[in-house]
Design goal:
Helix content: 10-25%
Largest sheet: 8 strands, mixed
Number of strands: 25
Shape: globular
Distance between the termini: 47 Å
Number of helices: 5
Structural class: mainly beta
Strand order of the largest sheet: 3-4-5-10-6-9-8-7
Mean pLDDT: 87
Length: about 350
């Protein structure tokens, strides 16, 4: 598509609010509202929840029982959120206050399914801009592929139906999942995975390690016969089949029309799409640990595993990491580019 066509595309759409910039935090598009001093993102797989220890909204009647990462039961209160949210509009909902998920997820509120049930959400993943649209009356549909949404009223969820080979799969549309496509069974996938990775979550009282298998460039055939190629991940501990925000970030522009239950994906791909590294690290209890490692990585072949503690050779880098623990992988990648011939540890 030419630049002129894109300009005409923008001018033709009827916007409710002006375009708002976002940045990525842990793979989620996060919008900062300077008036309310909060950052927010989206989770179509859940109701609205507060993910910070900061006070947001007013106390509301009611609570929910949830289980934490260590499978312990906790009672969580609800908060009433009633204010205008920059870039999104008027918010009037009850939010579950689950508190801070982790130190590095600096998102205060995840807007849930009830907040955008009748909205049209537009994302420009290339320019990192977000907008709520009034309608799509002037949209040039030829520039977009379409995916139908199905609303599961019993479970109050949006589902996407697609085939992987001969296997019919019902996916949960989950913008609160930062991955691409996740399956809980690989019934019709009989060949070897392209990538096998161990990933760990280090909780307060226990650690959870999951092995995921990634299959590259598989076809998803949707219920309207739209066929799109994507990478599909199988996790041995997955509970649901998911299509997450990572899948949509591969496209330059995406429109979620919750009014008509359709998703529009631009035929132009996102040139700035993030690619994953083979190994990640985290800082836990003042120790640098391997939190993710690809089985094809040389370190894995040399015996390194998820959960192993490492000692960095460069003490200046170590000091930087302790000062900015949430930037650990960015700092390490920058160091490796600047020091291609030096061992990290």
């Amino acid at each position: 598509m030419t630049k002129l066509k894109y300009l005409l595309f923008f001018l033709s759409l009827h916007s409710v609010y002006s375009q708002t910039s976002f940045k990525y935090i842990n793979g989620f598009p996060a919008i900062f509202d300077s008036i309310n001093n909060i950052s927010y993102s989206f989770d179509s797989g859940a109701s609205t929840f507060i993910s910070t220890d900061s006070k947001i909204g007013k106390k509301a009647f009611g609570f929910s029982i949830i289980k934490d990462v260590n499978n312990k039961i906790k009672f969580k209160r609800k908060q009433k959120l009633m204010f205008d949210l920059s870039g999104f509009g008027t918010l009037n909902t009850k939010a579950l206050n689950i508190g801070k998920i982790n130190e590095c997820l600096k998102i205060d509120v995840f807007l849930g399914i009830e907040t955008f049930e009748y909205k049209i959400l537009f994302f420009d993943f290339n320019k990192q801009e977000f907008e709520v649209l009034e309608d799509l009356s002037s949209l040039d549909y030829s520039n977009f592929d379409q995916i139908p949404l199905n609303f599961d009223s019993y479970n109050y969820r949006y589902k996407i139906k697609a085939n992987i080979g001969n296997d019919k799969v019902s996916f949960l549309l989950d913008l609160g999942y930062n991955g691409e496509v996740l399956i809980k069974n690989k019934n019709d996938i009989t060949f070897k995975a392209d990538v096998v990775t161990d990933v760990a979550f280090f909780g307060a009282n226990s650690n959870t390690i999951s092995t995921i298998e990634k299959f590259n460039n598989l076809d998803l055939l949707f219920s309207n016969n739209t066929k799109l190629m994507c990478d599909i991940t199988y996790a041995n501990k997955a509970k649901y089949n998911l299509i997450g925000i990572g899948f949509f970030r591969k496209y330059e522009k995406v429109i979620f029309d919750f009014k008509k239950k359709l998703i529009y994906l631009s035929k132009e791909k996102n040139k700035c799409f993030y690619s994953e590294e083979e190994i990640d690290f985290c800082l836990t209890n003042s120790k640098i640990l391997i939190s993710k490692i690809n089985h094809n990585n040389l370190l894995y072949k040399n015996g390194f595993r998820v959960g192993n503690t490492i000692q960095l050779n460069d003490k200046a880098l170590e000091s930087e990491i302790f000062d900015s623990p949430c930037e650990i992988n960015i700092l390490i990648e920058k160091w490796k580019k600047d020091n291609p011939n030096k061992p990290l540890f």
